[in-house]
Structure formats: C-alpha cells, structure tokens
Design goal:
The chain is of the alpha/beta class. Helix content is about 45%, strand content about 20%. The protein is built from 13 helices and 10 strands. Strands 1, 2, 3, 4, 5, 6, 7, 8, 9 and 10 form a 10-stranded mixed beta sheet that branches. The protein is globular and about 65 Å long.
C-alpha cells in the first residue's frame, strides 16, 4: 500500500514537531501539572457531630464540589475533643487529595489550650480555602432592662461582680469570645459556661445570666420567638442576617472583634496542582446564589480565600486565643 504524504501535510507535521521541541521539558511539566483528580470518591472528615452548622455547611459544599468535579464528596463525622481524632485521620491518609478535612477557628483554640497535640496544624496542614465566616451574637432577655449592649456595660461598671454572662463549653469560641469581651471592656462580670445553647437561653430567661454569647444559628429560634433580644454582633462589619444590630465595637468596646470561620485542608505534601484545583472549585461553588442564601440562613457569610490567607488566619488566631486563655487563667489541658 502506498502512503501519500503531501508537502502541506509534511509542513504541518514539521511545525508541530518544532513547537514541541522548542517547549522541551516545559511541555512535559505542564502535562504533569494537570492531575487526573479526583479518580474516586473524596472523604471530607468533619470534627463535629451530624446536624450542626459545621456539618450542614460541609454537606452543602461537598454536594456542589462533587457535582463540579465529577466524583462524590462523602462526609465522615468524627467528633471528639479539639478535633484531634479527625485531624489525625486526615493527616494519616495518602496526600493525594482524596481525604480532606474541615479546619475551623476551633483548631486554633486547640493549639492554644492543649499542652501538646499529636500534630502541628500550622506545619502539617495544607490549607485550601475558607468556606465561610460567622460572628458571635450577644443577646439579652427580651424583658431585660438592657435594651442595648451599652446598657449592660453601664450596669456592669456601676455594680462590679453582680452580672453574669452565659456561654457554652469552656474553651469554646463562645466562651473565649465572652472572656475577650470582659477583658477588652474592662468589666468585672462572671462568665458562666453551660452544657448547651438551650440551657443558656433558659438561664437568660430566668435571669441567672443577664447576657449570653453564641452563634446565630443556635439562637435563631429564641430570637424569632422574641424570647431573647440581639444587642450586638462580634465582627468587623454588620451582618446580613441582623443588619440593624450594632457591632460590639460600636457599642462602647472599640477594638473588639471575633470572627469564627471554617475551611478545607489536606495532608502536607498534597500536590499544589490539586490544591489549586480545589481552591478554584470552592470559589466557584461559593459564588452560587443558592449556596450564599443557604449559608446566610445559618448566619454564615460564604466566602473563599487563598490557601495562604487561610494559613495566615489559622496562625493569627492561635496567637489571639493563646493570649485570651492566659489572661483569663483558663487551665491548659
């Protein structure tokens, strides 16, 4: 059989060959930089029980990431003290992007409050992107004379040691946020940790505590039923879900700010190409109107970050909460 190879075909082949030759090693590097990922379902390990805000947001993000990347993202709940067990599960997995973890500001608190951890989040986590940010809400009893946070602060200064602030769980963001408020405002008040948010609300209604600090999703029912009254939020800007409620810094405590967050991480040595793909995918899904709306209903602002920005936030919060723990004389564990 005779093969016909025209001059035009030869010219095209020569151009292609010359182009590949000119790229040399760069061409192979670019090919290798595009990993086939994911090739099987991805595990997303969440250090909290099912049904909470962190779990719900993780499931929403996982569903959309699966749709975008063509493989299921499966949530595995591994609750435990300080998120230690969940983090160890992620870090012991192959660094191929098929096992990811949820990192939160609670991880920073764990570093600050535990004497030792079996890992170093700053060094061992490859941060990918934040999923969202959420603020603390300060609330009083709806029948309380404290219609504003300023009213509470004025009364606390007038009668040192008389008023109480309710939160949940020693070492939680809520409890440490209350301790930071107490220190920043220079108040002599007692921080009273309860087992659960409903217990705190009961304590507030019974006037066992005169102020409570928690997240919006946990307090939403009490707020909607007008049993409790939101008097301040803890971030740098007013929230979308409580736009009329002033910031703590606007209520007479300049410099006060607590912003909780969550995001994704992978084991160290995970390919930068995989991290980049995941980061771009997270950015895309968090821009979806239904995701923004669903997150907002939980009191969360859907917002992605660069990997470096999440890493910086993690490191900064370690230092911040370590200082609060030391000032409040909270014993390390």
């Amino acid at each position: 059989m005779t093969h016909r190879f025209t001059r035009r075909a030869f010219s095209r082949a020569a151009v292609v060959a010359a182009s590949v030759s000119a790229l040399g090693p760069l061409a192979s590097v670019q090919v290798r930089a595009q990993p086939k990922y994911p090739t099987r379902p991805v595990r997303l390990i969440v250090p909290f029980a099912a049904g909470g805000v962190a779990d719900i947001t993780s499931r929403l993000a996982a569903e959309r990431l699966g749709e975008k990347l063509g493989q299921r993202f499966v949530i595995e709940n591994q609750p435990g003290p300080g998120g230690i067990g969940a983090a160890r599960s992620v870090l012991s997995a192959p660094p191929d992007g098929h096992t990811l973890g949820l990192v939160t500001n609670g991880t920073s608190i764990s570093v600050a409050i535990y004497n030792t951890l079996p890992f170093d989040p700053v060094k061992d986590f490859v941060t990918i992107s934040t999923l969202g940010y959420f603020d603390l809400v300060f609330a009083t009893n709806s029948d309380s004379p404290f219609a504003t946070l300023g009213d509470f602060i004025k009364a606390a200064r007038a009668e040192p040691g008389k008023l109480n602030v309710g939160t949940i769980a020693i070492g939680s963001t809520q409890e440490l946020g209350a301790e930071l408020f107490k220190a920043t405002a220079g108040l002599d008040v007692q921080i009273v940790p309860y087992r659960s948010t409903p217990d705190v609300i009961v304590g507030l209604i019974r006037n066992d505590v005169q102020l409570m600090v928690d997240f919006y999703a946990a307090m939403e029912a009490g707020l909607q039923q007008n049993r409790i009254r939101a008097v301040a939020t803890s971030g740098l800007a007013r929230t979308e879900y409580l736009p009329a409620v002033p910031l703590v810094s606007e209520a007479g405590v300049p410099g006060y700010e607590v912003t909780a967050w969550n995001g994704l991480f992978a084991p160290k040595t995970t390919s930068p190409a995989i991290v980049d793909l995941l980061n771009r995918s997270v950015r895309d899904i968090l821009d979806l109107p239904d995701i923004k709306s669903r997150f907002a209903s939980l009191g969360i602002s859907a917002k992605a970050s660069t990997p470096d920005e999440l890493g910086a936030r993690l490191r900064g919060d370690v230092d911040k909460w370590a200082a609060v723990i030391e000032h409040a004389h909270i014993p390390k564990q």
